[in-house]
Amino acid sequence: MNAYKARSNSIPWPPIITLAAAILAVLAAWVYRLPFPQGAVLQYTGVLLLIFALAIDIWSIFTMRAAQTTVMPTKGSTHLVTNGPFGYSRNPIYLGNILLLLALSLILANAWFVILAAAAAIGMKKLAVDREELHLLAVFGAEYEDYCRRVRRWL
């Protein structure tokens, strides 16, 4: 567990995974379009979901900066942030990223975004969340365990 004390990752997986999922969804739809319901109501819902996702990400970043800890997943945490969006989700930025992909599925009427959002969530869990949890446990110990008992990983 001490290997995770300095930092959880050397590669910023979550933004890479989110961007890759978006690019793959666009390319996949170009090759083979899956059926997906369309309409103005779904597009407007997608826009609202997109705004909500961005708001979660921005709120999370400001909360982390206010706590004077890093936003970068490649750097070690100096403070355990448990307020703001972190009072609802232990990974609100990653949740925002997944919601962003789902919003794009509605805006673009592209089912591939839904499929790749699920794949992105699994990838983030394996490549980022699991490692970050080990890092936070190594750095904050019982305080982090208590936080995990109070707040869910995603939502």
Could you characterize the architecture of this molecule?
With about 160 residues, the chain is mainly α. The model has no long low-confidence stretch (mean pLDDT about 95). Helices cover about 65% and strands about 0% of the residues. It has helices at about 15-30, 40-65, 90-110, 110-140, 140-150.
Inertia-based shape: elongated
Q: Roughly what is the average pLDDT, rounded to an integer? A: 94
> Could you tell me the strand content as a percent range?
under 5%
Low-pLDDT runs: none
Largest sheet: none
Secondary-structure-derived class: mainly alpha
Q: How far apart are the first and last residues' alpha carbons, in Å?
A: 26 Å
Order of helices and strands: HHHHH
Percentage of helical residues? 55-70%
Q: Number of DSSP helices? A: 5
Cα radius of gyration in angstroms: 17 Å
Count the E strands.
0
Describe the protein's topology.
Elements: H1 13-31, H2 40-66, H3 92-108, H4 111-140, H5 142-150
Could you give a quick summary of the protein structure above?
66% of the residues lie in helices and 0% in strands. The protein contains five helices and no strands.
Features:
elongated, 155 residues, mainly alpha
